[in-house]
Amino acid sequence: MTMDFVTSQTAFADALLHADRPVPAGITTARGGVDAARFAVYRNNVFVGLTKALAQHFPVTERLVGTQFFVAMARAYAQDHKPASPLMIEYGGDFPDFIASFQPASKLPYLPDVARIEAAWMRAYHAADAAPLELAVLAAIAPEMLADLRLVPHPSAELIRSDYPVGSVWSAHQQETVTPLADRRPQDVLVVRPEMTVNVHILPPQDAVFATCLFNAATLGAAAQAAFAAGPEFDFGTALIGLVSLGAFSALQPDEGTVP
Questions:
Q1: Which helix (DSSP H) or strand (DSSP E) does residue 7 occupy?
Q2: Could you give the CA distance from residue 133 to residue 242 in angstroms, rounded to a whole number?
Q3: One domain, residues 103 and 217
Q4: Residue 151 forms beta bridges with which residues?
Q5: Which of 42, 123, 178, 224 reaches 20 to 30 Å from 60, CA-CA?
Q6: What is the structure's pLDDT at 54?
Q7: Rounded distance, CA 239 to CA 206, Å?
Q8: Which domain does 174 fall in, by range?
Q9: Spatial contact of 235 and 206, defined as CB atoms under 8 Å apart
Q10: 153: Cβ–Cβ under 8 A, 6 or more apart, which residues?
Q11: Is 251 found in the same domain as 210?
């Protein structure tokens, strides 16, 4: 691939995604002229395709802000975020981060985390299949050995920690009629697909530190120590059994420092 070809590709893509760019050099009609109006139609079709893809991936986000606002936000995102893959299911993975920096959406501070749940849902749906860790495997481990073990997150599992009740917001908008939230406390949300269905779970507040540590590759002992330090409500057995039962993990592995 020559540098001229790469440069032409880049110029073409930039012109498609920025309305203020001129028609790229070499893009002409059959008669050799430049037709800006025809190129504008093509540019609009590209934007329509990208915004539709984002709307499919982020339906709750769109519902929260309305279609008109969502389209404007999606267009602003698309201008500087070209698809990195021909698979449109992968488009918009960093859209939640963009929303967090999008000033017109700042009046909805919970919106980026709702979008993060939706992005995690999409990734979970397309994640590799793997059998979840079974409680029987955990029960067979001698209690004195547990502290030095790590849990391997399931390929589909992601944890979203938020200062807002985003799990409840997401859940409420799965219904045609949205019920006002009764509890507006911060929530930690586990998105996982242990079998065929993607599940969105709101974790008990006292388990959040424990789960976060485990997802960051801490040993069970270290994760439990951090959770106990965070609050007296934490119960090691309840939290561990709860997370494993939800399919959050796929395997156990020993701490490398304890392997002889």
A1: helix 3-17
A2: 12
A3: no
A4: 252
A5: 42
A6: 95
A7: 8
A8: 129-260
A9: yes
A10: 214, 215, 248, 249, 250
A11: yes
54 and 151 fall within a common domain? no
d(CA 167, CA 185): 11
Say how far apart CA 14 and CA 197 lie, in whole Å. 39
Report the DSSP beta bridge partners of residue 161. 188
User: What pTM value is reported for the model?
Assistant: 0.85
CA dihedral for 62, 63, 66, 68, sign (positive or negative): positive
DSSP designation for 143: G
**Alpha-carbon distance 46 to 73, whole Å?**
15
Question: Do 49 and 83 form a contact (C-beta atoms < 8 A)?
Answer: no
Q: What percent of the chain has pLDDT over 90?
A: 68
Contact 198, 125 (CB under 8 A): yes
DSSP letter at 147? G
Average pLDDT (117-139) is: 96
Write out the two tokens for 146. 């547990």
Contact 95, 58 (CB under 8 A): yes
Residue 163 is encoded by which pair of tokens?
Answer: 């200062």
Instruction: Give residues with Cβ within 8 angstroms of 161, minimum separation 6.
Output: 186, 188, 189, 208, 212
Give the highest mean pLDDT range of 34-48, 168-182, 232-246: 232-246
